[in-house]
Amino acid sequence: MSPESDAELLREAVLPGTLPEALRAELVAFRRDLHMHPELGNQEFRTTAALKRRLEQAGLEPQVLSLGTGLICDIGDPDDDRPMLALRADIDALPIPDMKSGCAYRSTVPDRAHACGHDVHTTVVLGAGLVLAELHRQGRLPRRVRLLFQPAEEVLPGGADEVVACGVLDGVGRIVAVHCDPRVDAGRIGLRHGAITSACDRLEVSLDGPGGHTARPHLTTDLVTAAARVAVDVPALVARRVDSRSGVAVTWGRIESGHASNVIPQHAELSGTVRCLDLPAWRKAPDLVVAAIDEVANLHRAKSEITYVRGVPPVVNDPDVADLLRDAMTLRRGPDSVESTEQSLGGEDFSWYLEHVPGAMARLGVRTPGERTVRDLHQGDFDADEAAITVGVELFTAAALLDAGT
Hints:
By secondary structure, this protein is α/β, with parallel strands linked by helices.
């Protein structure tokens, strides 16, 4: 038999048809409802209740996590003890205003927005769950699948670590996820073997010293200059003390000091992030960064107090699981629907799951084909082409069926 006929038999054996129009419409409506009612990390009570209610309507038995928000839901024969594939979604929003003027489903909560696509991720996993539940009723799901709706992805060090401690990976053999990518067209996904995101930590620095008059800086600790030197010199020092291939980047997002133009202040603050491309560099980063800050502060006679908050390691895709997603997408949408993607400097707490089980994350295209404007993540005007919901459901459903057949 030819490879072409093998592929066609595989397609017919494991892949369902296109989503019913009624389900497509329901999922779009569900996503828009989430978008209008965003909730921050560990506060996702309405979102959790909506998911629980819809899954119960489908005859399933979702379990709310002991954390109070988030839930898991297993689909399939409860007597099947083979390792499950977990489909993970993050359900929290961001503390920023929704700037989409004229949008019918704009956020109704001040200074809260689903500006990272978690409403899409959540709807995709819900939709896949509804399809898989129907396939199980038809006797077409030969292995159990777990839906995992995780709270607090945006809260360092990420809610995934606490979720894992709740036992959500018990019985799970592999785990997959998607993340919206506004640089990829809807209808396509981006994939790579190895690291697809980077490590991300948070950094807070306080500098103190005796202030004084700007006419006599030699009698003071010039904290404005000290803060400026920390902002400029520390990233350069760190970059010269690690292998440049590790991609360690110290980037400041806030610097504050002083109240008057002729007064040297007694206090200055900086905050920012430390990002790394690989795990070895991430493990060394705290000591390197703290030593560089102390060195520059001491040079300017400033007392430094440093808070280094560990965030998340890189998401490192397991090649076999990444290939599972590639095969699923190719069977559903053809080989041109998968593109290679580069490693991002963004952080994602999906990495914590991969400390325990192999898994992979795909970038889900949400840009309307032909659109030139890129509405970037974590911006108030971010939105997604809702055709991506169907694509994500097809991807996860096919992956679950292909995995169940192995």
